[in-house]
Amino acid sequence: MIGDGIGIGIVGLGGMGNLHARSVRELGATVVAGADLVSERRDQFADQFGARTYETHEELVVDEAVDAVIVATPNRFHEPIAVSALEAGCDVLIEKPLAHTLESAERIAEAAAQANSICMVGFHNRHAASMAMFDEQHARGRFGDLTHVEANYVRRRGVPGPGSWFTSPELAGGGALLDIGVHALDLALYALDFPEVVEVSGITRTTLGTSEEYADPEGFGDNWETEAETYEVDDSVSAFIRCAGGQTISLEAAWATNREESMDFRVRGTQSGAQFTIGDTDLQILEAGTAGCDHYADVNLSGDSTMTGYSEQDERFLEAIATAGVPETNTVEEALTVQRVIDAIYRSSESNRTTQLAESPTERAVQLD
Description:
Distance between the termini: 51 Å
Number of strands: 14
CATH class of the largest domain: Alpha Beta
Mean pLDDT: 94
CATH topology of the largest domain: Dihydrodipicolinate Reductase, domain 2
Order of helices and strands: EHEHEHEHEHEHEHHEEEEEEEHHH
Structural class: alpha/beta
Strand content: 15-25%
Keywords: Oxidoreductase
Low-confidence stretches: 365-369
Organism: Haloterrigena gelatinilytica
InterPro entries: Gfo/Idh/MocA-like_OxRdtase_N (IPR000683), Gfo/Idh/MocA_oxidrdct_glycsds (IPR050463), GFO_IDH_MocA-like_dom (IPR055170), NAD(P)-bd_dom_sf (IPR036291)
Shape: globular
Protein name: Gfo/Idh/MocA family oxidoreductase
Helix content: 25-40%
Strand order of the largest sheet: 8-9-10-7-11-12-13-14
GO molecular function, one term: nucleotide binding
């Protein structure tokens, strides 16, 4: 199997850490170590995977059995863990987003560029069946030139519990945009082959999550106590992104808003269009023709129902390690572009005007010279 002989260490033993551990084990890798500050999580992880456990990532990255590290912690801690792992010679997979701030993301990218190791970022929706089918049809030229993407990741009510790291600006760096909007944004840029972004306009809002009468019919956020908890992050965002080649992206993301939930992803092309639900396994292609008479031609493709993206993403990571090759997807460079657009959306909202992407450290250094 692709993961044979690869020792994996997981930092952050919550839901995502355990998901990755199960995934890489099914792909043949060995889960040799885990790290988490919470002793109960360490004990459960050790029992389930037969792995050594540590309280800190510093101990894990120097474990000689660890070949690769998967980072599944709150966003603020991505940088110190990833940098330590890269400096220790480990390959690294970082859960999305790359970091909690653009500056932190840039430091990770710099460390990855200097390391002789693989570094990838966890945008699993690229590998769901819906997107895999879109990629193949796009490669065949079916859509013509892609012109616009409508990307939605909207919950009607789905704010993570206040007091958790998700609603802490210090730990998360942002709210709905950095948590779920990042998935839709990455997928949109990926669909368009990461064109140069020239202008961003965005508005972030904090409206429903701070209400003392917040209704949570499905109990998404446990132990809701608005008065007792800090909530200083965005719970919705609307953004418009213009690219150098004329392509555009409209983004809607929300933890909570007074509209129906939606994870609709729609792509317009000059020959045909496509739409699907983010992370789903079906794809609809929208075309029109004149044969016989003017008509619409809608084609529905049904993909592998087990192909949700998580396993496929981890398989790409293990393949890159096994072949010592340069990753062809989920690269740090792509994740840094996503982070720069997110930063521009926040700055646009703060200034109430359109903005451009922040200069990279290299560009800033050139200007200073």
